[in-house]
Amino acid sequence: VVVAAAVMSNILGSGCPVIKQDKAGEGKEKKLNENGVEEEGKSCSSDDLVNPKNNMLIQEKQTPTVGQNKPLPLHRQQSSIPKSDFNPQHQEEDNENWEYPSEQMLFNAMKRKGWKPEEDDMKSVVAIHNAVNETAWRQVLEWEDLHEDTKEEVKLTKFCGRPKDTTPKAFLRGLFGQERPFDRHDWVVNRGGEDVRYVIDFYNVRESQDKDPVAVYVDARPAIDNVSNAFDRVRMGFKRIFSSNPKAMSSAYVPTLLTRKTTTNTQTSPSS
């Protein structure tokens, strides 16, 4: 069984379309060293990896990477997640929903991050990546059900991986001896014209501490950025306790399907 924590941390982190900014507010370009691994570089311009209008990645290449043994499918599956009016360049403008990366795009992203993916594993890698994101979106919609007037209009505007930034909830779980998440995402959702930030923690599920993960647990909730989001957190807590038909908790679990171990050629876990 593959070490799902390593694979999923890389997949979810490397797919982040928002580039972190330095103190001057400029995105930093990622330069490749002799091993094809990213290094911090100069600030990006409009001709580099990001669109200066929105600070989002333009595109992960669809061409085979150096050392690739065989071609991979270029097909990109369309998600169930609606896009807002904001359309990054790595998405087809005519599509109403977000598109997931192809096997080739994820393979390139993992190689660029310093990992050694196997071509034969990429079908399963894409399946896990897509299932995790669909699960996160279902959880977002569960929260948005609290807002009757706008719940049919909810769309995802942008998202970003923040694996090094621990949420308060994850920090408290760690204090009580529970496993910390291997990754974190922030999603910005458009709710009737208003931007609402969600935080999503991704956890490994193990049968025991000495065994590889068997599933990914997804925990999405609105960030406590304002009184309204804090009130939603309280309302959802009561809803889950007292509802006569509570949501099945198993919907937050995504089985890990890989069967071969993917390793890194760096000493630290790559992340965006």
Strand order of the largest sheet: 8-9-10-11-12
User: pLDDT under 50 segments (min length 5)?
Assistant: 1-6, 12-48, 50-58, 258-272
Instruction: List the secondary-structure elements in sequence, H or E.
Output: HEEEEEEHEHEHEEEHEE
**How many runs of DSSP E, i.e. beta strands?**
13
| Helix amount | 25-40%
Sheet/helix structural class = alpha+beta
Biggest sheet overview: 5 strands, antiparallel
Gap from first CA to last CA: 25 Å
Task: Give a quick rundown of the structure.
This protein is an alpha+beta fold and 272 residues long. It has five helices and 13 strands.
Topology readout:
Blueprint: H1 4-14, E1 28-32, E2 38-43, E3 50-51, E4 56-57, E5 78-82, E6 97-99, H2 103-112, E7 115-116, H3 122-144, E8 155-161, H4 168-175, E9 183-191, E10 194-205, E11 215-222, H5 227-242, E12 253-255, E13 263-264
Antiparallel strand pairs: 1-2, 3-4, 5-6, 7-13, 8-9, 9-10, 10-11, 11-12
Helix pairs in contact: 2-3
Describe this structure in words.
With 272 residues, this protein is an alpha+beta fold. Helix content is 25%, strand content 24%. Strands 8-9-10-11-12 form a five-stranded antiparallel beta sheet. A two-stranded antiparallel ribbon has the order 1-2. The model is unreliable at 1-6, 12-48, 50-58 and 258-272 (pLDDT under 50).
Question: Which properties best describe this structure?
Answer:
272 residues, alpha+beta, five-stranded antiparallel sheet, 5 helices, 13 strands, 24% strand, globular, disordered C terminus
